[in-house]
From TrEMBL:
Keywords: Cell membrane, Membrane, Transmembrane, Transmembrane helix. Its main location: membrane. This is UPF0056 membrane protein. The keyword Membrane applies. It is a multi-pass membrane protein. Belongs to the UPF0056 (MarC) family.
C-alpha cells in the first residue's frame, strides 16, 4: 500500500519517544489519581481513544488550517520547537509555566484534552510532520494511545510502585531528550526556511 511506502521503524520509535516525553503520562500519574479520587473511576479506553483521535485528526487538519492562515509547516515546526523547549525546561528545572490541574469532568476533559492531547502535544505532532512520514507519526500516536490506556488503567498501582523520586528522575531524563529534540527541530526547519527564501 502507498501509505506504507515511507514506513521506518527508526521514525516510528523517534515519533513515539518525542510524543511520549511531551505527553508525560507517567509524570501525570499523581494528577490522574487525584482526578480519580475526585470524580470516581476514569474510563481509560474512552480517554485514550479520544486523545489519539484528536492527535491524528490535528495531524492532517492542522496543516490545512495553517495554509488557511498563510503559515508554512517549517515556520510552525519552529514555533513547535519553542513550545517543546519550554516544556523541556519545565521538566528539567521542575517549574510550572502552564500546567492544567483543575477539572470539571474526568475522562474526556481534562484527561484526553488537555492532559494528553494538549497544545504541546498537538504542536509537536504537527512539527514532526516536517521531518517524518505521516504513517510513522500515526504509528507513534497509536503506540502512545495504547501506553496512555495502560497507565490510566493502572494509575494507582503505578503511583505506589514508582514513587516520587523515580517520577522526578524520569521527568528530568525525558526533559533533556526533549531539549535536544527541540534544538534539532529548530535548526533543521530554520535551515529549510532560509533555503526556501534563497531559492525564492
Amino acid at each position: 500500500m502507498e501509505i506504507f511506502d515511507g514506513f521506518s521503524i527508526k521514525e516510528v520509535v523517534t515519533s513515539f519517544m518525542v510524543l511520549f516525553a511531551v505527553i508525560d503520562i507517567i509524570g501525570s500519574v499523581p494528577i490522574i489519581v487525584s482526578l480519580q479520587q475526585k470524580f470516581g473511576q476514569i474510563e481509560a479506553g474512552k480517554a485514550a481513544i479520544t486523545a489519539g483521535a484528536i492527535m491524528i485528526v490535528f495531524l492532517f487538519v492542522g496543516n490545512k488550517i495553517l495554509k488557511l492562515i498563510g503559515v508554512d509547516v517549517n515556520s510552525f515546526a519552529i514555533a513547535g520547537a519553542f513550545v517543546i523547549f519550554v516544556i523541556a525546561l519545565e521538566m528539567i528545572l521542575g517549574i510550572e509555566i502552564n500546567k492544567t490541574t483543575e477539572a470539571k469532568a474526568a475522562s474526556i476533559v481534562p484527561i484526553a484534552f488537555p492532559l494528553v492531547a494538549g497544545a504541546g502535544t498537538l504542536t509537536t505532532a504537527l512539527s514532526l510532520r516536517a521531518e517524518f512520514h505521516d504513517i510513522n507519526i500515526i504509528l507513534g500516536i497509536i503506540l502512545n494511545t495504547i501506553f496512555v490506556y495502560l497507565v490510566l488503567k493502572s494509575a494507582k498501582w503505578l503511583e505506589r510502585k514508582i514513587g516520587d523520586a523515580t517520577l522526578m528522575i524520569l521527568q528530568k531524563v525525558f526533559g533533556i531528550i526533549l531539549l535536544a529534540i527541540s534544538i534539532k527541530l529548530f535548526t533543521a526547519n530554520f535551515a529549510q526556511l532560509v533555503q526556501n527564501y534563497i531559492n525564492f
